[in-house]
Amino acid sequence: MSTIFDITNYGAVGDGITDCTAAIQAAMDAAAQCMGEILVPPGTYMTGKLKMGPKTKLTGTSTWAFGPYGGSIFMLNDPHVDCMIDITGAFGCQIHGMNLHGNSLGEGIHGIKLYWPKYNGGSSEDTPTIDDCKVGHFTGDGLHFEHVWCFSVRHSQMYHNAGAGLYIDGWDAFILDNWFSGNGNCGILGGPVVASITATGNRVEWNRNAGFAFQRGDSVNITGNFFDRSYGPALRLGYNDGIFRDATITGNIFRRSGKPEEGCIKVPYDSCHVQLGGVENTVIQGNTFKYGRDDNGKGVYSPNYSVVAEKCDYVIIKDNTMHGGALVENIIYDGQGHNVVTGNLGEAMPAPQDE
């Protein structure tokens, strides 16, 4: 018995016109009976909401580039759904090599959604894997994981979604080698709890609120990422009366943060690379900070500050390079708590005058 289910054998046509929702869902349902694989040949398949089963794999041909979608494309054709692919209860599922295009339809529609009404709602680790996918042009979040327990997102692009590239409310995540670009909210936005997260080797650029924003949680490792031209702080932890504990932030590049033109700078200290409020037991070490402006030498230089730390306890900010890291001042520290701020290299400096 075959365990590989080609959606075209169920009537799906990749012509960008035919509604393939029922055909794709039939292939997914068949795969769910045997922990099988759903195969998507190259083409553009119009679809509404789909539901994956446990321990199944959706496989396409990726071939995506920065702007264009290519290879195997699912394009949304229903403006009245809450998401394109629902993976709630699809324990251990994988989505590999797919291009998911939201078509800018509806309001608040997510690309891939996992939702439980409470933490540990599934009574087991969810463990979905999103790998080598492009998820963009959704009116909600590219990926929306609410009350999630354990997942990985690897080598994918969350691109030009109206919400966040990835929304996390939960814990135990591996976020590796991705591209969060041009989303209307954050590259990654945290919900009520963000805990036990490893984010490594991601490029985070031109997101309209912040690069990563985690209000409450603990135990986050943010290492070796490239943050570029955020419309607000590149990294925001524990803001708005949140408490965030136990973070390691090392080996990152923070460049051209705090882009001011889009109204995301609500208070002056939002013009910074890293913003900490109510953060405890955290180290920021071995990073590089640099101000700048838009591509081709256009736009306004930013940010004004490199690191802003308010109401923080036991936070170490040292051994970072900050020569020209900010326009006004590199470190803003309100003097509360037991912070250690020492040993950074370089000075803030004004922007060069245009010739």
Features:
mainly beta, 355 residues, 11-stranded parallel β-sheet
Q: Beta-sheet strand percentage?
A: 35-45%
Query: Mind telling me the C-alpha Rg?
Result: 21 Å
Counted beta strands: 32
Oligomer: single chain
Distance between the termini: 71 Å
The gross shape turns out to be elongated
The total of helices stands at: 1
Mean pLDDT: 95
The percentage helix is under 10%
Enumerate the spans where pLDDT stays under 50 for 5 or more consecutive residues.
Answer: none
Query: Structural class of the secondary elements?
Result: mainly beta
The largest sheet, given as strand count, sense and whether it forms a barrel, is: 21 strands, parallel
Describe it for me?
The protein has 355 residues and is mainly beta. The chain has a domain at 186-355. 3% of the residues lie in helices and 43% in strands. It is built from one helix and 32 strands. It has one helix at 21-32, and strands at 4-6, 15-19, 37-39, 43-47, 50-51, 57-59, 72-76, 83-86, 94-96, 99-101, 110-115, 129-131, 134-136, 143-154, 157-159, 166-176, 179-181, 188-200, 203-205, 212-214, 217-223, 226-228, 235-237, 244-250, 253-255, 272-277, 279-285, 288-290, 305-310, 313-318, 329-333, 340-341. The strands form two sheets. It has a 21-stranded parallel β-sheet that branches. Strands 2-4-7-10-13-15-17-19-22-25-28 form an eleven-stranded parallel β-sheet, with helices on one face. The protein is elongated and about 65 Å long. The termini are far apart. The model has no long low-confidence stretch (mean pLDDT 95).
